[in-house]
Here is the input.
Amino acid sequence: MLDVTSPLLAIKDLQAWYGESHVLHGVNFDVREGEVVTLLGRNGAGKTTTLKSIMGMVAQRSGSVRFEGRELIGSAANQIARAGIAICPEERGIFASLSVEENLMLPPVVKPGGLSLERIFDLFPNLKERLSSSQGTKLSGGEQQMLAIGRILRTGARLLLLDEPTEGLAPVIIQQIGKTIRSLKEEGFTILLVEQNFRFASTVADRYYVMEHGRIIDQFSNAELDANVEKLHDYLGV
Amino acid sequence: MFEIFGIPSNALFGQLLIGLINGSFYALLSLGLAVIFGMLNIINFSHGAQYMLGAFAAYLLLQYSGLGYWPALIVAPILVGITGVLVERLFLQWLYKLDHLYGLLLTFGLALIFEGVTRNYFGSAGLPYTVPDSLRGGQNLGFMFLPNYRAWVIVASLTICFGTWFVIERTRLGAYLRAATENPALVRAFGINVPLMITLTYGFGVALAAYAGVRAAPIYNVSPQMGSELIIVVFAVVVIGGMGSILGAIVTGFGLGVIEGLTKVFFPEASNTMIFVIMAIVLLVRPAGLFGRRA
Amino acid sequence: MRKTLGLAALAAVLVCGSANAQQINVKIGVLTDMSSLYADIGGPGSVAAAKLAVADFTKDHPNVKVDLIIGDHQNKPDVGSNIANQWLDVDKVDLIIDTPNSGVALAVSQVAANKNGLFIVSGAASSDLTGTKCNANTIHWTYDTWMLSNGTASAMVKTGGDSWFFLTADYAFGYALERDASAVVEKNGGKVLGKVRTPLNTNDFSSFLLQAQSSKAKVIGLANAGGDTINSIKQAAEFGIVKGGQSLAGLLVFASDIAALGLPTAQGLVLTETWYWDMNDANRAWKKRWDVERNAPGKLPTMIHAGVYSGITHFLKARLAMGPGAVDNKAVVKKMEEMPTDDILFGKGSIRADGHKIHPAYLFEVKKPEESKYPGDIYKLRATIPADQAWRPLSEGNCPLVKG
Here is the structure.
């Protein structure tokens, strides 16, 4: 049985390589059920690699990734997805050869309890209007981002990995995404967010981990954010 | 009755129909190649040999298990498809990250092996295979005598082509395939077993070739070299249609069959060359092919 | 591979070097297509026939020692010439035999003439080998394009097939066949209504067959070979050409092609050959031994195989008559021409001044499936063409060796 006090996702000594280059040097952190946790860090700190390693999308990795108490480090990406984790990648990954509707319906349902299409359209009214659009990549950047998040809400995955969902988007869209993340949290989703924009992160996150050179170098809760702003500026080079 | 360029119109209709029937073979074979290239990024040079294996499988099934044409039409593609699955698991899966050239060389080598082994066992002259009794005879259409078997060939071809197009362009499975062509890692991260899908796709492409082979057995000489004679033309079809384009393969296959058929009337000596002339022109004007997605 | 053959030959020379003075050592090279298009009409079957010929002859004449070597010309004239050069220069081969594919055979014939070798053609068809391209070092044994078209075409015209349409393979061999057959048709009072040149290795002949059909010609002449012939006959059956009243005339069809077609498709086809395994007891007995040597169930020996046997046998007789010691190959050819030929497969015959072996030819019709009583029972004899009528008259070949 799942111990209620144990974290939903526990990462221990996670290491990862791209060929010869050693990218993650032993990453340790936890995400508890229902939390929104943000990984902060400069470009190249290893945030995206961490998400991809959790998802099994990096071939060479070691250490421990426990999800709901189950070890996933040796599993393939498709098995990890079936365990109930879904990713929204940084480049959004909208498929050009698929229509908007096909993009939305692409990820298979892996568990019961995913959001209904109506609920997804409540969150992203624009998507409903563009549903009949022929090609997914004809959408605007903001619409593509909504599509990329919307499609993983259907699947029943409990843990969402969102990689810089606000990157390159207009402030009004960023606000809408922030609103969406907060309401997803209310629905009981657990979210691991990668962000460089900690102002945005501060509107949604419960806790923060700071990464540098493939390691976690600091952590604090949202309540501690103000006390750490100076340090963060330093870390992020803002 | 009127004449077009000195050819009676009814003869011309006959030739158009014949061209369409031959085009259905090109379409079916280039369809398999297009599916394989789209999904695996492999230029499957053993496609002709696998077509030949389909015809040989039909012959062997008849000789040794008494299975006639109709069961063979199902069983032979499955058997040959299984060999395709083995080939993908044993060899091809190691080549996806490498240059196209490696896949081409490997499959070319396999084609030579398949051809050599069958020639060693069955000789080069060929093996007999006849039109099934239920499709003997033909219909007099007025402008030509249409053998029933040819009518069946064109119907079956259109069905398979449309079916494949429909599955790939209009179903959920097809959406997985198209998405995996673009970004296999992400599709896998959505919970889809992409490597298995790739293996089965290759098996399916090979089975399509074998299916064409069974259909060819009653009308073409069943010999070890039957595939290598056809495959060059089919590659030209795929290049003209645009590598990896399903619709391109189908439309170009039928279209070139018709053009080739007309060449056989007006300038028979050039009928085998015509397709390559068209290929050269298309490559000059549209290097990605008529239906190619990549510019 | 040729290197291994060369080594084997070298070893053979060393072994034979110590033999006694009365012994006659000869080396025979079977140059054929071992693995491609013509591997069934020549190829391993020719090798088997050569082995039988050597075994039969050396049994009666133990003082003749024969080394047999094999070369695969892959249907490429340059490969064939290279092997022939190597055999004549290095391996000192006394006889090169077989060589299906007229292109390769013409090239090898040139090599034999230049290097004073001896070349017996059994596998190739071009009548030019004893016509304009004839030479004193080449003998054409089994069949040629003139004989084939003459036999089939004149028989067809005489039985009412007086209007013809040709499907002609678009290369030199096809033209030769069409030219020779057209001449025969017209000489016998028939006429040629049309022809279509089909590219080599065409898969689908239906367009051409439709053209032949609408020409209303009584006979559709197939001036092609191998896969092209099989495809055109198969598809003619499918399009009901024969049922519609037109006849097919195969101008170059081998027993192995009939096996590939199957009797239901090939039935009724008229063709000419010079040898058929089921014609007499001697041939049947020989086929049994060939089957054992060939070891490929279901394969039939062709006239080319029989010609290899017959050619080697006659060559060895001539060599034996000339005694031990060095001989000039032109003299061997002269000797072979002087001696009448006589063997179990072709019976009595002769070799003309242009280098052509002369024997009867046979017009066959392919049996209906219900007439065939056992595997390989495929032909019924329609006519025998006597040796003096079967071949192109000596005066018409324009062979430089023929004076006058």
Summary: Chain A touches chain B through 25 residues (CB under 8 Å). Residues 171-186 of chain A form the longest helix (16 residues). The first strand of chain A starts at residue 9 and ends at 18.
